Every structure is written in structure tokens, then in C-alpha cells.
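>> received
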Amino acid sequence: MTQAQLTSFQRWSILAGAAILLSLAMGMRQSFGLFQPSVIRDVGITTADFSLATALQNVVWGVSQPMVGLIADRFGARWVMLSGVVIYAAGLVIMMIATSALMFTLGAGLCIGLALSCTASSMTMTVTSRTVTAAKRSVAMGAVSAVGSLGLVIASPLAQTLISTAGWQVALIGFLGLVAVMLPAAFFAGRADEIELAKADETDQKIGAVVQSALGHSGFVVMAIAFFVCGLQLVFITTHLPNYLAICGLDPSLGATALAIIGLFNVFGSYAFGYLGGRYPKQYLLGGIYIVRSVSLAAYFWFPASAASTMVFAAIMGSLWLGVVPLVNGLVAQLFGLRFMATLTGIAFLSHQAGSFIGAWGGGMIYDRLGSYDRAWQAAVLIGLIAGAFQILMNVRPPIRRDDAATALPSAA
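>> returned
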């Protein structure tokens, strides 16, 4: 079945399934910071322990993403995504019954990290890219990312309400209800496996040659390194903002409200950057996101936190949150085509998750040792500005494929 043969219902069911899957997977994961005070109190772990669990989640997510992408590229995305939903449920159950830091880390770190490899941005952007034409690819990925942002708007208030009224274990049971919705979403999104690739996206190269070409491409390397900074900044915020607000003596519900605002503004930001990515150089937009994020971080943490400043900060960050997803995935497709897109975006995402590890665990370590988040946000700002500048200068010329070079030789002779 080709893209042209898809009915409107088939196309929209794939895109809707991808959006719902991304929405709920990321919405729950980005709300875990709300559980930190209660888990620390009831399970008897430290801030560093909680941060380590979150950091390990990001490492597992990053390390497993290239392999999960390779499996999806070779055998199809549907069963990968369905397996991820089951693993997500297992992780939540282990978190709920945890009695030690090790057990909590097994659920929140290992299981949720692996589940996200199968259900989050890399897989959903891959099935989205296969479903639409190249001309509509960027805006489609932006739209799916935008709808995917609504998960935080749903999960964050749900978690905070249940934590406040019934306890954090009941909040995790509520999350299991959301996981149940992910199963049919993964099934419908997996219909993309049946779509044939266009000739321009096919290649006779083996996966090893394609990966070698990507790792030797200066633009891909720069993009991956800049993606490291993206992960560091975002996970630092989602993990430590609720705790930072509590330290500042602000209402605990403000953290949930801020995360919900991030999710709401992310809807507009993701779609906007997907739309702009189809019309303007993606590397300029990406670099601009990293620079504006860094300036916003500096402005927020430099002055005393208040409810008003937190709301403004959340709105700005939300507008820039997942706007990177359609741009990074679009650049990978632009440089290397769709045949091994899940594998290559997985490699780039490994760098992102290395940054996420530093943002989560490093932020907790700095706070435990220095009693302040100052050095953490200052480092995030500095490297964000540097990454943004290099991203703008990224090389966006596609590498010469071996099959293309072989075709060109006779005419050159």
C-alpha cells in the first residue's frame, strides 16, 4: 500500500494513534516530578535517589532507542509500540509498590525508560513520516507533536489532584488508566508498517553503512550534540521545578499548574515549528530555540520566583518545548531519507538522553551538596547558548550515497 492509496480514515487513524501514544507517554513521564516530595517521605529515599531514578530512566531510554529503532525499521513499529505500552504499565506498578530506592529505580528508571523508547517521539515521528508526503512531513510531525503535548495538560492536573486527595499510589493507578488508552492508539499507529516507502527514501545501503555515514557527517554530529543540551534543560525543569518552587515557599499546586501551562503552550509551539520547518531552514529554527530557552532560564532563576514569573516562564518554555521534535526528525529525513529513520533518530536521541541524565541527576546532586540550584541552572544556560550557536551553523548537505555515486560514474566517464 502506498501513501496515495491510503483512505482519509486510514491516514487520520494512524496520525491520531501516534499523537495519543506520544501524548500519554510523555504526559505521564513529564509529571513524575510531582511525585518527588511524597515518594521521598513515604518510601524513605533522598532527593538524589529520586533524581538518580529519573536519570537512569533517561539513560535507558537513550541507550535502548537506537536498538528499538533498528527493530522497528526491520520488523515493523506496531509490535514495538504495543510491547512498550505493556512495559510502561509494569513500570508504574513497580513504582506503586516500591519499598526501597532500588525497587523504585527499577520501575521509574529501567521499565519506564525502555517503554519510552517504544512509545515516545522517535517511534511516533517515524510512523508519521511514513504516512504523509515529503511536502507535508514537517507540518504533520508538528501537528502530532502538538496534540502529543496535551498529555501533560491531562496527566499533570490528574496526578496533583489524586496525590493531594488520595495519595501518590492512587495517582499511579490513575496513570494505569491512561496506559490502557495507549493500547488501541499503538495498534492504529502501527498501520503505518503497511505503507511502502517512496523511491527517494529507499536505499541499497546496509544499516551499518548508513550509520557510519551519519556518524561521519559533521551536521548530524553537531545536531546530536546540541540535542544533548535540549535534554539537559528540559529534564532539569520537569524534575526539579516542583522542588524548587517548594523551596521558595510557593503553593505546591503551582508546580502542577506550571507543567500544565508548559503542555498547553507546547501545543501551539510544536505545530508552529512544524509549520515553519517546512518553509525555513530547520537548523536556524533549532538554534533559535536553544538560545531563547537559555535566555529564559537565566531570566527566571536570576530573580526571586513568584506565581506570576513562574506562569510566564512556563508559557515561554512551553512554546519552545517539543518544537525541536519535528525539526530534528525533519533534518534526519532530509539528510538520510526514511528507510532507517527510526535508527538514526534513535542515535541522535541517545545524545539527548545523556543530557537528560545530567539534567536530572546532576541537578539533584548539586542541590544536595550545595543547598541551591544556582550552579545547575547557570551551567544549563551557558551550554545552551553555545549549542544554539553551533546548531545554526550546522552542515545540512546530504551525504553522497554509495548507490547514487555508482549511478553517477558512467555519465562522468
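>> The chain has a mean pLDDT of 86.
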